[in-house]
Design goal:
This protein is α+β, with helices and mostly antiparallel strands and about 525 residues long. It is built from 22 helices and 13 strands. It has helices spanning about 15-25, 25-30, 35-40, 50-55, 75-90, 100-125, 130-140, 155, 160-185, 190-200, 220-230, 245-260, 265-270, 290-295, 300-305, 340-350, 355-375, 375-385, 415-425, 425-435, 465-490, 500-510, and strands spanning about 60-65, 70, 145, 150, 205-215, 235-245, 280-285, 315-320, 320-330, 390-395, 445, 450-460, 495-500. A four-stranded antiparallel beta sheet has the order 10-5-12-11. Strands 7-6-9-8 form a four-stranded antiparallel beta sheet. The protein starts with 16 loop residues before the first helix and ends in a 5-residue tail after the last helix.
């Protein structure tokens, strides 16, 4: 399938204001665009780019909502959306790149069409019907039926009965959708709710702080762990044969090696079923801790590591495979003066003993706090050669709502933007930051690979005019904006939605035999 995995990212100015709005906010566009625009477009569309084989018929159903098909038909809403996206990206996307064609044109059009079908289905189930007189009135207002500013029955009658019926039903659907969106976006926000939300921005704090990195775990601690658990870092050279048919077959192969009928290497190449078969079963050198993943049973591991050079193990079962090993070299005891072994110790602890490393960093932070309580925060920062960060003023803003100041709007030395975003979603951060008394170091807070200590230095009240502005923004537009952003995901993730887009798309567009 040519260039299937290559993404084509384009930058292009919108060719019309309608296309721009559709691209930026497709859900809102569906509900608020003027009825006449879509209706007129449906009768002047340039033929869309589709395979010749589909123009004469064929199944162009890409999914279902509540068992109602979402199909591409020339002139219908799916085709209109597809045409608009195609116009927007005209000249910017190579339509022979079917992955880009699907990602930037067909998939967004399909999702917009899915919302169209879903809204109509939901309104149908609510027993809402646009009055016939209302539809007739809107049809009479269409510009193609106007003569000197008045409705012309002569122009109207020039259209075929079938086209008039299609037009009438499109107007009816648009009016139905407009009623849905008017109701949805016209929901009243209780004044108490808006006041409560804006009140969250009232108390704002400014913080100093320091960071303790978990990955600063010292060499002495790595060595102490290694010396306390030396068996984990012993190493052994092994070969293996894996049989997935039966235990009996594995024992038969093992016996043939023992009696000399076959060599281990030949049996591995011809009968083993794992990644080591082509190498005659050679697994290379393994540290004992690595064998924990390959041989889950501790008793089986102990028996294996107690074997001498060239000895064969018994057949053991590992999940649905029967395996036996040969020891190529005697077990080698760990040498912690060897830099390679210490590197393995570091890797092991970072992957399997992360909690121990976090405990060490937390202990460093607690020692820092103890000193700060007696010496003062700034003097303790200098005494420990730490870099102090500062940010604020910041209100309680869990999850970084754009209604007021967000945590990730600050630049904090030692924390990336992603780490700040993650921190803003950490409930313990907000509890810690806003419950710690002023001029007192907070309890240590673990966030990813960092342990943080915050020192609240000031608390102020947000300006009253700003609070009123936030309250107004929440009540007037913010709630509707969030509804808009969640609309397509709501329908696409609904249990009523049956998504068959990729199956249909590649059936139609993929080259034969790809």
């Amino acid at each position: 399938m040519a260039q299937k995995n290559k993404k084509v990212i384009v930058e292009k100015e919108s060719t019309s204001e309608i296309v721009r709005k559709f691209k930026a906010n497709p859900a809102l566009f569906i509900g608020t665009v003027v009825v006449l625009v879509l209706v007129i477009v449906s009768f002047i569309l340039v033929p869309a780019i589709v395979p010749e084989s589909t123009r004469g018929g064929g199944d162009l159903t890409f999914g279902y909502y509540d068992k109602t098909p979402i199909s591409w038909v020339p002139g219908n809403y799916f085709a209109q959306y597809q045409s608009q996206f195609e116009q927007y990206y005209r000249g910017s996307i190579d339509t022979s790149n079917i992955w880009a064609y699907a990602q930037y044109i067909w998939r967004p059009a399909f999702e917009a069409a899915a919302v169209h079908v879903a809204v109509l289905q939901e309104m149908k189930k609510s027993n809402y019907t646009v009055p016939v007189k209302t539809v007739d009135r809107e049809v009479a207002k269409l510009p193609q039926f106007q003569d000197n500013g008045r409705f012309s029955s002569a122009l109207y009658n020039q259209m075929s009965d079938s086209n008039r019926l299609v037009l009438w039903r499109q107007i009816q659907d648009e009016l139905t959708k407009m009623q849905y969106f008017n109701d949805l976006f016209g929901l009243l926000v209780p004044s108490g709710e808006a006041e409560f939300i804006s009140g969250m921005a009232s108390d704002m704090r400014t913080f100093d702080g320091v960071i303790f990195n978990v990955d600063d775990f010292p060499e002495s601690e790595y060595l102490a762990f290694a010396e306390g658990n030396p068996d984990l870092f012993d190493s052994i050279h092994l070969s293996r044969i894996s049989v997935n048919s039966s235990e009996r077959e594995a024992k038969k192969i093992l016996e043939s090696i023992k009696n000399g009928t076959s060599t281990f290497e030949d049996a591995a190449r011809s009968q083993s079923r794992d990644d080591f078969a082509d190498r005659g079963g050679d697994m290379g050198i393994r540290y004992v801790f690595e064998l924990e993943r390959e041989i889950p049973n501790a008793g089986d591991r102990e028996k294996l590591t107690s074997l001498n050079k060239e000895e064969l193990s018994d057949v053991i079962r590992i999940e649905d495979v029967w395996v036996f090993f040969r020891v190529e070299d005697d077990l080698k005891r760990a040498d912690f003066n060897d830099a390679a072994v210490i590197d393995r110790v570091r890797s092991y602890m970072r992957n399997f003993q992360r909690g121990r490393m976090e405990d060490w960093a937390i202990a460093q932070a607690e020692n820092f706090n103890t000193e700060a309580e007696s010496l003062g925060f700034n003097d303790t920062v200098r005494r420990h050669f730490k870099e102090k960060f500062n940010f604020g003023p910041l209100p309680v803003n869990y999850g970084s709502s754009d209604l007021f100041t967000t945590l990730d709007s600050f630049s904090i030395s030692g924390l990336s933007r992603q780490e700040l975003t993650d921190l803003s979603k950490n409930e313990n951060f907000w509890k810690t930051a806003f419950s710690t008394p002023l001029n007192t170091p907070s309890s240590p807070l673990v966030q990813g690979s960092k342990v943080l200590v915050f020192f609240p230095v000031e608390q102020i009240k947000e300006d009253e005019d700003k609070i009123k502005e936030i309250e107004a923004n929440y009540a007037i537009g913010w709630v509707n904006n969030r509804i808009e952003q969640s609309l397509i995901p709501f329908f696409i993730n609904n249990s009523k939605f049956d998504d068959r887009f990729w199956e249909t798309f590649y059936r139609i567009f993929a080259p034969a035999g790809s």
